[in-house]
From TrEMBL:
InterPro entries: DUF2231_TM. Keywords: Membrane, Transmembrane, Transmembrane helix. Residues 7-144 form the DUF2231 domain. The chain crosses the membrane at residues 6-24, 36-57, 85-103, 110-130. The keyword Transit peptide does not apply. It comes from Pontiella agarivorans. This is DUF2231 domain-containing protein.
Length: 160
């Protein structure tokens, strides 16, 4: 049966991919001056922002049962802090971009600032993902080991 704490690791890959591809699309649009790539970057930023919100909320739920002491607690705190910063950066970037597009000001300096904000948001997502990866691969957060061995059948009921 699916445990709701498994939702977070399934969701986190979407904002990573959407925001990275969106940023790359904006860069291609800047170099080629093709509006298509800027439009793709805009919509991928919006979708990626929705993904960041979903990842943040699911992460809050998934982290509720985690031990908050020792090295695991420190790693969890780093990941949570990075995720909160990412949430604010990416949301702010999306709001700036939406305002610029709606006000028809997405050009020149505004475009450069929006692209720089997008880069900072993508770097923040990468940092958050790095800390999340450390939680799993270094501290085994959320890892459940089941070797399929019935220790009772081996003749020892008091095996630790």
């Amino acid at each position: 049966m699916l445990d709701l704490t498994h939702i977070h690791p399934m969701i986190v890959h979407f904002p990573i991919a959407l925001l990275l591809v969106g940023f790359m699309s904006d860069l291609i649009g800047l170099v080629t001056r093709r509006a298509f790539f800027n439009h793709c970057g805009f919509y991928l930023l919006i979708l990626g922002t929705v993904g960041v919100v979903a990842a943040y909320l699911s992460g809050e739920y998934a982290g509720d049962g985690m031990p908050e002491a020792g090295a695991m607690g420190q790693a969890l705190e780093l990941h949570e802090s990075a995720a909160e910063l990412t949430l604010w950066l990416v949301s702010g970037t999306a709001l700036v971009r939406i305002a610029a597009v709606l006000l028809k000001k997405y050009k020149g300096v505004v475009k450069a600032v929006a692209l720089l904000l997008f880069l900072v948001g993508v770097l923040s997502v990468a940092r958050t993902g790095y800390y999340g990866g450390e939680l799993v691969f270094k501290h085994a957060a959320g890892v459940q080991l089941d070797l399929g061995i019935d220790f009772g059948a081996l003749g020892g009921d008091d095996v630790d």
